[in-house]
Amino acid sequence: MSFAVKVTGHVGSVVETELPGLTGSLIASGITAGDASLWGPAAEDEASRRLGWVRAVSVSRPLVPEITALRDQLVAQGVTRVVLAGMGGSSLAPEVIAQTAGVPLVILDSTAPAQVLAAIDGDAETGGLAQTVLVVSSKSGSTIETDSAKRAFEAAFRDLGIDPADRIVVVTDPGSPLESSARADGYRVFTADPEVGGRYSALTAFGLVPTGLAGVDIDELLDEADATLLEVAIDSPDNPALVLAAAIAGGGARRRDKLGLVTDGTHIVGLPDWIEQLVAESTGKDGSGILPVVLLPVSPELEAKPDDLQVVRFVDDAHAFHLFERHTDEVLVSGSLGAQFVVWEYATAIAGRLLGIDPFNQPDVESAKAAARGLLDAQPAPTAPAFVADGVEVRVSDPSLAAGGTVASVLAALYARVPADGYVGIQAYVNRLELPQLAGLRELVAADAGRPVTFGWGPRFLHSTGQYHKGGPATGVFLQILERTDVDLEIPGRPFTFGQLIQAQAAGDASVLADGHGRPVVTLTLTDPQAEVLSLFEAAQ
User: Fold this and answer.
1) Does pLDDT of 1 surpass 80?
2) How far is the C-alpha of 348 from the C-alpha of 96, rounded, in Å?
3) Are residues 205 and 65 located together in one domain of the fold?
4) What is the three-class DSSP state of 127?
5) How far is 293 from 259, CA to CA, in rounded Å?
6) Is residue 330 part of a domain?
């Protein structure tokens, strides 16, 4: 068996209760057959155009020799460094695939100017722009982050005397505006199945082209996925996707609506980050949803064990499940990466059925984009901070949050707004290559707030958990972290820079959360990021 799942305790009882209904409804075989009616009349039109992922393995097979041939051609030309410009599923799945295979792939899913410049310039270890091919991944090409990166690379290639047509590969939907412009510009184009949404696209051209060009054995990945397809297609209580769906979305009034994802000795790197966007964006809507929380084996939530948190623990070998028996009331999961992709996609779609929502739409994602566009058009003067302490500018959605006059008191006031069933969302709009330690803030906040805490790098989380923040239960409070930097970069053909873009994205999302949805938001801007991270950590403790 290529995938194994074990449930015990309360979650085991939930699964036992839910499985007869799931098998009786024939949902597993129905998904495999492309039955768009499974999620109700309101979702049928969307579902009819979003079930192509069930046939992704067979559709993608012919791509493998094409990708391999292009890689050989590039390597023969000395082009060995691969940069991927994409957002959401278009970047998160390739990141997991490449990291797990131990293959270098530069992921550019940020608008932080210094991070964009680093992707363009390269380094001594992986090579510079002269050795670089850029993969531009976007279903339509309208994604502002991806389009901006493409423009910046085109200009950089030309400045170096390189024809962008020799160094840019495009992955998009057939008939998209991006396909038309890319072919007109002479770029190499791979088209993906248009009936697959971005977050379900791991095994399509979006997942395979950048990783295959980087050197991953993508044929093996498809083999791993193929070995699981029969298991998830059968309406049986042994179907791992049915068990997993029941575990994460079952229980009715007793349902645990937060999903703790913890890796414990598995060879797969970064899988919870991919699952986070798949589950959060698929289920966080209509005031409902499942909030994934990416944890470490020593995270405070595992000690506190809040009643509304269901833990899923990833281990390498199902034969070792008995070693984790001390972790009662958890879901233990083991499987190859290809199998994980297939089972989690099926389970998430089935979870949508259990929750009574459409798992294929994302109705609230556009609101933050619209707010950012409005700010870019208007170019308003920055709002004055409520106060500045130790070089940290503090802005709040509610003046009473700033009454204490210190960063520590503002954080305490924010945590006090977390309801009994709530969570804290940390959003870091910074160059994460320079400030990776900020991710450690999550653990301190979780210990201090006493509730589950999510952490997202901005703006990439806007294409994943951003949907849950606005469309899910109104129980979140939000901490934004921004940086003040002298580094900026023009976006060719645009009336704004990368620095202005990321500032607008942060401000736009904050306004939608606070003004549109009544969520408390605290924004901390580090005026000297490297120097002030320590003071921020001290305040968080």
Assistant:
1) no
2) 18
3) yes
4) strand
5) 6
6) yes
Show Cβ contacts of residue 296 under 8 Å, excluding neighbours closer than 6 positions.
262, 443
Same domain, 68 and 206: yes
Exposure of 526 in the CB half-sphere (CA atoms within 13 A)? 20
The encoded tokens of residue 236 equal 């049986």
Query: Residue 254 has what pLDDT?
Result: 84
Instruction: Give the pLDDT score at 530.
Output: 85
Contact 9, 326 (CB under 8 A): no
Residue with tokens 């009882």: 13
- In angstroms, the first-to-last Cα distance of the chain is 45
Based on the fold, state whether residues 417 and 350 are members of the same structural domain.
Answer: no
Domain boundary among 221, 248, 276: 221
Query: Domain of 270: which CATH number?
Result: 3.40.50.10490
Single out the residue of 180, 176, 184, 134 nearest to residue 154, CA to CA. Answer: 134
Contact 151, 169 (CB under 8 A): no
- Average pLDDT over the chain reads 96
DSSP H helices in 215-286: 218-233, 240-249, 271-283
Query: Dihedral sign, CA of 313, 319, 320, 322?
Result: positive
Asked if residue 49 is part of any domain, the answer here is: no
Q: Are 499 and 413 within one domain?
A: yes
- CA 115: distance to chain centroid? 18
- The residues, any chain, with a CB within 8 Å of residue 378's CB and separated by 6 or more, are none
Q: Is residue 271 in a domain?
A: yes
Q: Please indicate, yes or no, if residue 39 is contained in any of the structural domains.
A: no
* CA 469 from centroid of its chain's CA atoms: 13
Cis status of the peptide bond prior to 359, with omega within 30 of 0:
no
Per-residue pLDDT reduced to its tens digit, 269-303: 999 999 999 999 999 999 999 999 999 999 999 99
Q: 3-state DSSP call for residue 164? A: helix
Residues 413 and 522 in one domain: yes
Give dist(CA 152, CA 148) in Å, integer: 6
Q: Are 380 and 494 contained in the same domain?
A: yes
The boundaries of the domain holding residue 526 are 365-540
Q: What is the pLDDT of residues 230-260, one digit of tens each?
A: 999 999 999 999 999 999 999 988 899 999 9
Q: At what angle do helices 113-121 and 144-159 cross, to 10 degrees?
A: 40
**CB-based contacts of 486: which residues, under 8 Å, 6+ apart?**
none
Give the residue from 196, 221, 246 where a domain finishes.
221
Number of compact structural domains in the chain? 3
Two tokens at 245? 């769906």
